[in-house]
Amino acid sequence: MRLSRIHIGTDILRKIIGLYPTKGCNAATFFMIIFVQQNFSKLKKKRMKKSVFKFLAKVNKAVLPSYSKKQLDLSKATKFELAIIGWRYYVTTNAIA
What we know:
Blueprint: H1 10-17, H2 27-63, H3 79-96
Helix pairs in contact: 2-3
């Protein structure tokens, strides 16, 4: 017999996850706890991604040339210079977001 999430009782889910009812813990509260546990790993990955991009932004600032300080004209920039500008933009926007 195949059971969907809706048909699984809260007692079975509590046994699977290891949570036991507390005073005032209804089904809605219990399912909210499950939702938070499932989405915690997504939040953790997002935070880790942001920290990696912050590190890359610091490396870019130290290593790559700043074309805004040199007042580079974008219409006269080479493809390599445009690629560096694009990379810095990509890293910066991901570090901020």
